[in-house]
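dumping this here so i dont lose it
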């Protein structure tokens, strides 16, 4: 019999030795039978058979009689298991196809266009530039109070009124032993949440001191301290409430945008990630810890969320993880060759990440590898030089240019070169005397070649459910990008903003009904996570830019109105 024939049932439970004719008589009451094949084998305690009915009605009647007695034996009649397996596989294929179709339909969710106007040179003057004494490490926007919140390496954080530029600094404490409120190590992340049960808004900060501190947005008094992480707290977000864009997905109608205030929908639940490799869930209303999720094999660096039940994190383990917070499951996405320092959700099915390998990646939730990888997104040209020794005497005596005598060996310093190469036989005292005399040789840097150098992508900012996103690094530019296709397979660079320093954090302010598109950047002389490189000419500052096409008049006004530029220590 063929495995794919129809109207085939498996009948079992007949006493051993039951003949084909007896089984035929028993089943013929249900419908006309075309064929029957016994499956009795030695050692079995019952006899079974495969029965082929000519019509589907016969099969259905037989199935309905399953459980009927035959010589006090219960007879089981069911669709043949091989056929049933085929049906199950077909059902799985159908379910898979439906799921893929559903995912495709989500990807077809239209992303809105955000018009942007930038000077080709990138020399866009900020509407406001608030100068800071210490390096800002992170930034977020308080949509409820129209404020900017940012953290600093000084262990304190600041609040800026977007419209007036008024700055307020909340200082950290001097050391761990101090009884004063606040962090005693640099702040690495911050966010804003509003409880569902009240109109109370909180600013929340996470620090290298492994604590999360919750602050009353009105009084700026410390309201709660959350402890439990065993490493620096590197990322914070309210579940479902990326503050950027002031939009959130309604969980009951997935894919539909709920335009009420973002964090207000959820938002008693706080999510945090840490260098201890974990994702933790907290209940702000009850002021307690809820759960810990494990998955990253190294530090988790960033987190974002647009749905109350889901979030994404990125880490040093070269992975991005898409979490079902309450289901306890995660999907692992890989594609970078170095630590992934930032990740932002473009919508519930698309997200963008930036890595220390210099690349920006665009992802969809139904694919474990990037839809698009933009290598060297913040690359710039650098000149490679090599030190050489030149003769100063020759250039003075005959007026000719100094000529290189010998390239400086890379394994020794210039002072070692004079004593060990030029005067190798001299005693230590004689060498010191030689070095104290007027130097007849100089070390100069000789250009060798120019090459493209990719800098780390240190920050990403998006306006959720739109095509616009921005990326920052330390190459002197903030890049603006536009997603060209809804499946995120094509992206266009639409301009840049020149800025000197490390762009440690960015956020957009875009409110429905407001034509203004505001980009806010936290810029510092050092990277937010370390001090291995310092750009001395950079200013620690919070810079506010207006990007929409109607901003030209506002920009000119800002240039001519000194009151819009606020410097503060």
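and the seq i came up w/
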């Amino acid at each position: 019999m063929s495995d794919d024939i129809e109207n085939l049932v498996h009948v079992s439970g007949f006493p051993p030795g039951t003949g084909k004719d007896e089984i035929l008589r028993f089943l013929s009451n249900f419908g006309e039978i075309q064929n029957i094949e016994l499956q009795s084998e030695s050692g079995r305690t019952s006899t079974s058979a495969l029965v082929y009915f000519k019509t589907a009605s016969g099969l259905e009647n037989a199935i309905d009689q399953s459980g009927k007695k035959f010589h006090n034996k219960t007879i089981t009649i069911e669709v043949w298991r091989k056929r049933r397996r085929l049906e199950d596989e077909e059902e799985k294929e159908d379910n898979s196809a439906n799921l893929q179709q559903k995912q495709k339909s989500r990807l077809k969710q239209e992303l809105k266009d955000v018009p942007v106007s930038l000077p080709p040179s990138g020399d866009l003057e900020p509407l406001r530039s608030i100068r800071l004494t210490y390096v800002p490490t992170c930034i977020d926007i308080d949509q409820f109070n129209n404020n900017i919140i940012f953290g600093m390496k000084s262990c304190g954080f600041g609040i800026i009124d977007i419209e007036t530029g008024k700055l307020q600094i909340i200082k950290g404490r001097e050391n761990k032993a101090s009884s004063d409120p606040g962090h005693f190590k640099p702040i690495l992340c911050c966010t804003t949440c509003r409880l569902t049960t009240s109109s109370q808004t909180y600013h929340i900060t996470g620090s290298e001191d492994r604590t999360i501190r919750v602050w009353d947005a009105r009084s700026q008094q410390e309201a709660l301290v959350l402890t439990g992480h065993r490493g620096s707290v590197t990322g914070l977000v309210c579940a479902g409430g990326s503050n950027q864009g002031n939009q959130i997905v309604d969980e009951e109608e997935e894919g539909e945008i709920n335009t009420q205030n973002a964090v207000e929908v959820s938002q008693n639940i706080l999510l945090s990630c840490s260098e201890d490799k974990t994702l933790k869930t907290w209940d702000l209303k009850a002021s307690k810890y809820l759960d810990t999720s494990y998955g990253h094999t190294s530090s988790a660096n960033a987190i974002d969320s647009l749905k109350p039940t889901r979030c994404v994190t990125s880490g040093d383990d070269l992975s991005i993880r898409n979490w079902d917070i309450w289901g306890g499951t995660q999907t692992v996405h890989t594609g970078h060759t170095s630590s992934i320092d930032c990740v932002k959700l473009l919508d519930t099915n698309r997200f963008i990440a930036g890595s220390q390998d210099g690349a920006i990646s665009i992802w969809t939730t139904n694919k474990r590898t990037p839809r698009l990888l933009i290598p060297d997104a913040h690359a710039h040209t650098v000149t490679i030089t090599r030190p050489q020794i030149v003769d100063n005497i020759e250039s003075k005596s005959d007026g000719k240019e100094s000529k290189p005598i010998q390239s400086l060996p890379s394994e020794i310093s210039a002072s070692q070169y004079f004593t060990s190469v030029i005067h190798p036989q001299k005693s230590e005292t004689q060498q010191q005397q030689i070095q104290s005399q007027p130097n007849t040789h100089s070390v100069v840097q000789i250009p060798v070649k120019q090459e493209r150098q990719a800098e780390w992508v240190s920050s990403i900012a998006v306006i959720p459910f739109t095509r616009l996103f921005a990326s920052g690094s330390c190459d002197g530019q903030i890049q603006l990008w536009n997603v060209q296709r809804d499946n995120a397979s094509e992206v266009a660079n639409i301009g840049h903003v020149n800025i000197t320093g490390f762009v440690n954090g960015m956020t957009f302010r875009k409110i429905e009904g407001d034509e203004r598109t505001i980009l806010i950047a936290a810029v510092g002389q050092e990277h937010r996570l370390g001090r291995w490189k310092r750009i001395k000419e950079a200013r620690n500052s919070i810079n506010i830019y207006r990007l929409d096409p109607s901003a030209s008049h506002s920009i000119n006004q800002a240039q001519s109105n000194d009151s819009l530029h606020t410097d503060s220590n």
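Helices lie at 20-27, 56-64, 81-107, 392-397, 414-422, 428-436, 552-560.
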